[in-house]
Amino acid sequence: MSTSKLKMFSQLYTKDMRELVPEIVIVAAAAVILNGLFYFNMNRYTSFHPAVFIIPTFMVLAVAAFLPFISSFKLVSREWSNNTVYLIMSLPVSGVMIMGAKLAALITQYIAGTLIAVLMGLFLAREAIPDIMKLISNYPDILNLAIMFYLLSIAALLFLISMGFLSQITGKLSSRFSSLITFVVFLLTFYSMSKIISFSIVKLKMITAAGSSAILNNSSLTGDLLILLLAAAVVFTLAVVIYDRKIEL
Amino acid sequence: MIEFKEVSKRFGSTLALDKLDANFPTGKIIGLFGPNGAGKSTSIKMIAGLNRPDQGQVLIDGELPRMSKAQIAYLPEIDHLYPWMTIGQAAGFTRSFYVDWDNDKYHELLKYLNLNAEMKIGKISKGQRAKTKLLLTVARRAPYLLMDEPLSGIDILTREEIINTLVRDYREGEQTIIISTHEIAEVESLVDEVFFIDQGKIMLSGSAEEFRVERGQSLVEIMKEAFRHVDQ
Question: Which ipTM was obtained for this model?
Answer without folding.
Answer: 0.91
